Amino acid sequence: MKMDPDRQYVTVVGAGLAGCEAAWQIARRGVRVHLVEMRPEKSTPAHRTGGFAELVCSNSLGAEVVTSPGGILKAELDALGSLILACARESRVPAGRALAVDRDSFSCRVTRTLTEDPLVTIERREVTSLPSGPAIIATGPLTSDAMAAALSGLVGNDFLAFFDAVSPVVTAGSIDMSRAFRGSRYGKGDDYINCPMSRYEYEAFQKELSLAECAPRHDFEKDDRYFEGCLPVEVIASRGTDTLRFGPLRPVGLEDPATGERAWAVVQLRQENSEGTLFNLVGFQTNLKWPEQERVFRMIPALRDAEFVRFGVMHRNIYVNAPKVLDPFLRLNAGGNLFLAGQITGVEGYMESTAMGAVTALNAVALLHGLDMPVWPRETAIGSLLSHLSDQQPRSFQPMNVNLGLFPALSERIRKKTERCEMHARRSAEAMKIFLDNLPPLLKNIQTKQISSENCG
């Protein structure tokens, strides 16, 4: 379908979380969107479908409660009428206080909603050069080589890369429940399957894991700049005997009901799909060769006979040095009508990427109408993330999740983190309401749209 040259529109390149949220927010303001996605015509090393918003790492979108920074961010996205959040809640699977989704159902809902939107035109092809603006580039951490080269040519040596990894998935029926138990930390539900290990079992596992053979990387991936928030489990294991026990295998708050005692280490499994037939190994992102994964992970007592339906994979993630190449509105300094959105901007996390899609949507609509771009309140999680992306002080820019350290200090010192979060949440909600109330009419939500109601399994 060709775009109508007599109507103004915004081009969005990439239908991941950020691109889909951007397209949704633009259309809600009555502006046409040209959404271009290269899959399934061309895939990536980590994707397996052509669906929009396919999650390739964890299936958890993090905590929802406002006693966490992630919950504050979700509340702000709720206030914006987020497509990604709405589809996630329609596709959720049990995960304690976290919002985890059935990947296929989630992707299906996002895809159908945007496909059915009359203001969204979808094109399936790889974009190999920078589009004419106004445009949002939301090609994500797995940006194709051609687009990476086009961006690199514009921003120069400030274009960076790091690595991310994907956890393995096992079938529920193959988990030895005589060696495992259900429960969440500190007795808060039973959403996880916990696989305890004795000291002897753990130390044998840690040793083999740290010595296991990793898969070779492509030449363009030979770079050791891992993001600390998503390290491969074998890298964590190699840093010391007890590093895993103080990380993803920490046993704190998980007493084994069979013994009434805390195990030496615990591997947690989180539900992967709505039926509860698949579980992923929490915190087990890995770059080990597949036979090595099967060999080493079977050393976990409850997984000795596990059926692995997906092994972990490693892939390149790309982001820019945002303080140097982006303005405060996520616009490329060298391209005045080109915006970046999502993880490529240097935020880390599903909801953080989604938020950057919403930010660029409002900015692109403002640019299209000749309006000033909105300045987000620093008291909000979104404003704090944008401030991080504009901070010129750090000597070495690193991707960042939303966290309390990004927010402006409170007027009073509060020691307990949950209480501090609640205070930040109240301040954020007030600032967000004032911000939205004062948006120009053309930037407010003027279109009433519904999430696709068709069955997505």
The helix content is 25-40%
The CATH class assignment of the largest domain is: Alpha Beta
- What is the CATH architecture assignment of the largest domain? 3-Layer(bba) Sandwich
Quaternary organisation = single chain
Widest sheet, order of strands: 10-11-14-15-9-16
Give the class from helix and strand content and strand pairing: alpha+beta
**CATH topology name of the largest domain:** FAD/NAD(P)-binding domain
Written as H for each helix and E for each strand, in order along the chain, the element string is EHEEHHEEHEEHEEEEHHEEEEHEEHEHHH
Overall mean pLDDT stands at: 88
Task: Describe the fold and architecture.
This protein has 457 residues and is of the alpha+beta class. It has two domains: 282 residues, 3-Layer(bba) Sandwich (FAD/NAD(P)-binding domain); 144 residues, Elongation Factor Tu (Ef-tu), domain 3 (Beta Barrel), CATH 2.40.30.260. The protein has a six-stranded antiparallel sheet with strand order 10-11-14-15-9-16. A five-stranded parallel sheet has the order 6-2-1-7-18, with helices on one face. The protein has a three-stranded antiparallel sheet with strand order 3-5-4. The chain is globular, with a radius of gyration of 22 Å. The two termini are 29 Å apart. The N terminus is likely disordered.
